[in-house]
Amino acid sequence: MKREPRPLSARQEAVMAVVRSWIIEHGHGPTIREIGARVGLSSTSSVAYQLAQLEKRGLISRTGREWSSCRLESPAPPWRGLRSR
Description:
Blueprint lengths: L9 H17 L5 H8 L4 H13 L3 E3 L7 E3 L13
Antiparallel strand pairs: 1-2
Helix pairs in contact: 1-2, 1-3, 2-3
């Protein structure tokens, strides 16, 4: 039996919204400092942690080492197993 993934935290939702809008507006991902300024986090370490959590969940990915190279990943369709009789 597969567990349902936990919902995103409010902070993760805010970071995702910033990344999404920034990519639409600028064509590339925001820097850690730009994300922090928009979500109210002054610690770049806190922003990097939130981004790493989103990357671990498969919602964003990076094409390079910098977070400004991040891109949104399309969510996987819900998993549906075969029913047993």
